[in-house]
């Protein structure tokens, strides 16, 4: 059977193992407030037994590894839901910034400016020969054009801002994916699988940040490495020790905005759905252009109907229709009274309407070309002074939205079109805000669940510390007993 020396080594192994485990407890306690830290657990195992005859004798205990307490499934869930929460929050905050401007209810608001224009037409219909009222109507028309242009430009500024954010976010994504790939290298080459806890904690923190920027799917390989792809599966960002960079290439996306390319070859713009980057692309390419489309349609409806009436109406004393459009584009107007210098698309046939819109220079130079009168009533051959039939028809457009002459028909009044636009933006803000709150609650619940598993619990660590302390004291006492026996053996039998 093993002798006293073997027993000393047995006790020594207990001392060393308990001390090492106490160091792990100390590490947990020291990092109780460290963000992203995963609590560690000392894995103790008995040493190989020694055989003498037919009896196996134990040889003590060893610390085999220090393992982080993780739930991989929870980590992957948090990455996915964080991207959704970040994307919803970004959309909500960005749309909130424009909601107030579009919903301006003061005298400078879009609805107020449209109403002022048609009120100017109504005033002129009461006194069609009043030159001052004609000038006033032109001023109101210019104010309306300026109001719709300013709102359109505000949306365009937001789109440009989103495009700049895309380029900045792409750089941030590349920095994170490179760092994650480097940590994958450290983890894949660790001597003991699962032992490099610091690298895993760093990688988890970096992946948390990455999921805020872009929607991702994360898979953990057999060697503990992360493979990270875009949430749509359209491209791989990290594969083991390799990372693949995104780049923002100008001129390839909608309206010449930046396309997002993966590894300089694959266009993944449409495949980025969530995170801040997905939100910025959605705002830039879908949400904001949708509101601009509504403004283009509103401008097309007013322009078309007013122009058709003004070109077919008569000036006071006129023997023929004026043939003059009230509003004019940069080049010319078509048969429906719309500017021809547009950039139509299948989804938006009136794209560019607002940008091309202005009051006709001929009207500005000669306000008498505002056609307030209808066709002469026989036997008269010229329009009678004071005839206001055409002016009344123009004024009625505010409530009908359609003169019956063809052209662009909105299907609603112009004030309703503005209200619908404001309502659409407000509803979108509310929807995304609700989604952001719901996702935030979900992420918080998942993080709390992860913390209950991976976070440091001081009560639990105190209990572990007391247990290990008792184990250390017992091992020390065991060594003391063996020492006494050795001393007795030497002193009594060594003489």
Distance between the termini: 25 Å
Report the helical percentage.
55-70%
Biggest sheet statistics: 4 strands, antiparallel
Envelope shape: rod-shaped
What is the typical, i.e. mean, pLDDT?
89
Number of E-type strands:
13
Order of helix and strand elements from N to C terminus? HEEEEHHHHEEEEEEEHEHEHHHH
Using only C-alpha atoms, the radius of gyration works out to 39 Å
Tally of structural domains: 2
Determine the strand fraction and express it as a percent band. 5-15%
Strand order of the largest sheet: 5-6-7-8
Helix and strand composition category? alpha+beta
Total helices: the number is: 11
Regions with pLDDT < 50 over 5+ consecutive residues? none
Provide a descriptive summary of the structure in words:
The chain has 495 residues and is of the alpha+beta class. The protein folds into two domains: 4-69 and 455-493; 76-439, no CATH class. Helix content is 58%, strand content 10%. It has eleven helices and 13 strands. It has helices spanning 4-30, 72-102, 110-126, 131-188, 197-213, 275-312, 353-356, 361-365, 389-400, 414-454, 458-493; strands at residues 40-46, 50-52, 55-57, 61-68, 216-220, 226-230, 236-239, 242-243, 246-249, 259-262, 266-267, 327-328, 358-359. The strands form five sheets. Strands 5-6-7-8 form a four-stranded antiparallel β-sheet. The protein has a three-stranded antiparallel β-sheet with strand order 9-10-11, covered by helices on one side. A hairpin with a 5-residue loop joins strand 5 and strand 6. Helix 3 (110-126) packs antiparallel against helix 4, helix 3 (110-126) runs antiparallel to helix 9 and helix 6 packs antiparallel against helix 9. The protein is rod-shaped and about 150 Å long. The model has no long low-confidence stretch (mean pLDDT 89).
């Amino acid at each position: 059977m093993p002798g006293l020396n073997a027993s000393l080594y047995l006790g020594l192994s207990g001392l060393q193992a308990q001390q090492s485990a106490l160091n792990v407890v100390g590490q947990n306690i020291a990092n109780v407030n460290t963000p992203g830290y995963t609590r560690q657990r000392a894995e103790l195992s008995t040493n190989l037994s020694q055989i003498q005859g037919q009896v196996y004798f134990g040889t003590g205990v060893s610390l085999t590894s220090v393992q982080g307490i993780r739930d991989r499934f929870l980590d992957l869930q948090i990455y996915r839901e964080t991207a959704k929460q970040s994307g919803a929050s970004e959309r909500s905050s960005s749309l909130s910034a424009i909601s107030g401007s579009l919903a301006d209810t003061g005298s400078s608001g879009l609805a107020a400016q449209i109403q002022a224009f048609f009120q100017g037409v109504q005033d002129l219909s009461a006194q069609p020969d009043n030159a001052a009222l004609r000038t006033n109507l032109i001023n109101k028309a210019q104010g309306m054009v300026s109001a719709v242009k300013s709102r359109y430009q505000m949306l365009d500024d937001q789109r440009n801002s989103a495009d700049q954010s895309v380029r900045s976010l792409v750089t941030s994504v590349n920095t994170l994916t490179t760092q994650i790939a480097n940590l994958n290298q450290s983890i894949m080459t660790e001597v003991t699988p699962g032992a490099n806890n610091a690298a895993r904690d760093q990688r988890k923190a970096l992946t948390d940040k990455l999921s805020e920027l872009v929607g991702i799917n994360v898979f953990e390989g057999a060697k503990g490495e992360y493979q990270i792809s875009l949430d749509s599966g359209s491209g791989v960002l990290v594969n083991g020790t390799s990372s693949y960079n995104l780049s923002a290439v100008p001129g390839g996306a909608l309206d010449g905005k930046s396309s997002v390319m993966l590894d300089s070859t694959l266009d993944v713009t449409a495949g980025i759905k969530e995170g801040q980057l997905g939100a910025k692309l959605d705002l830039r390419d879908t949400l904001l252009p949708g509101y601009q489309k509504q403004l283009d349609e509103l401008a097309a409806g007013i322009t078309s109907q007013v122009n058709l009436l003004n070109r077919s109406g008569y000036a006071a004393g006129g023997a023929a229709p004026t043939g003059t459009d009230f509003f004019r584009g940069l080049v010319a107007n078509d048969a429906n009274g719309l500017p021809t210098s547009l950039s139509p698309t299948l989804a938006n046939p009136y794209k560019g309407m607002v940008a091309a819109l202005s009051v006709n220079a001929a009207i500005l130079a000669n306000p008498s070309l505002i056609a307030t009168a209808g066709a002469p009533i026989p036997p008269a051959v010229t329009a009678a002074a004071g005839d206001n039939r055409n002016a009344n028809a123009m004024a009625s457009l505010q409530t009908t939205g359609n003169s019956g002459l063809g052209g662009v028909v909105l299907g609603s009044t112009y004030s309703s079109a503005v209200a619908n636009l404001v309502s659409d933006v407000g509803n979108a803000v509310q929807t995304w805000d609700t989604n952001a709150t719901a996702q935030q609650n979900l992420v918080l619940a998942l993080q709390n669940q992860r913390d209950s598993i991976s976070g440091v619990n001081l009560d639990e660590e105190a209990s572990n510390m007391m247990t290990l302390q008792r184990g250390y004291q017992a091992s020390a006492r065991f060594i003391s007993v063996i020492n006494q026996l050795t001393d007795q053996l030497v002193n009594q039998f060594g003489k």
